[in-house]
Design goal:
- The protein has 194 residues and is mainly alpha-helical.
- The protein folds into two domains: 92 residues, no CATH class; 99 residues, no CATH class.
Length: 194
């Protein structure tokens, strides 16, 4: 076991260190973890004033900065994130049935969006033509692909993810029973558990 830990540590040292701009977004999450425990701030976070602040921060970050790597942009997005993590619903938009459905499908969207974009830009449009698109045409194409992505995500969520989540308790119970029987058999026979 000590050998495995040593190898893992050595490999960890050999991996290039992450760049600061890839790590700093986590500061917003760390900040949220502290503020979410502070009751006065949570009470403020659910107010309409807080919704205006959140929305203003998001709009300013998107409109004012071409990349999220600037400190100011990261700060604005972190403020919005902390307020939302503490209960802000952006005037109820985050708890609407549509938002809840899209939230449930988020993992499917995450898994399928890269495939949808790759197929669109490499096979349907063509890589050469894709490179010559204007920014406006590029984003219009993205908007055009979005309904197909949402539909595909809805189908995979309903047919794969939701049934798996519904059956997870049964599968977990079965696995625990099987592992318990196996562990108890080893203990009874005097064999080590590992």
């Amino acid at each position: 076991m000590a050998g495995i830990v040593s190898i893992a540590n050595t490999m960890g040292l050999a991996i290039p260190q992450p760049q600061v701009h890839h790590v700093t977004p986590f500061l917003g999450g760390i900040t949220a973890s502290f503020f979410v425990k502070w009751e006065p701030f949570r009470r403020f976070a659910v107010t309409n004033v807080s919704s205006f602040i959140s929305l203003g921060c998001i709009v300013m970050a998107v409109v004012s900065y071409p990349t999220r790597y600037s400190v100011a942009c990261l700060f604005l997005l972190s403020v919005a994130f902390v307020l939302i993590a503490c209960g802000n619903t952006l005037f109820g938009a985050l708890v609407s049935p549509v938002s809840r459905t899209l939230g449930e499908m988020a993992y499917s969207v995450y898994l399928l969006h890269g495939i949808a974009l790759f197929v669109t830009f490499y096979f349907i449009i063509g890589i050469t033509e894709s490179r010559s698109l204007s920014p406006l045409l590029h984003w219009l194409l993205i908007v055009g692909v979005t309904p197909a992505l949402i539909f595909g995500s809805f189908v995979t969520f309903r047919l794969i993810e939701k049934p798996a989540m519904r059956n997870s308790a049964t599968v977990t119970k079965w696995l625990r029973t099987r592992l318990s029987i196996r562990s108890n058999g080893r203990v009874a026979s005097g064999l080590p558990l590992n």
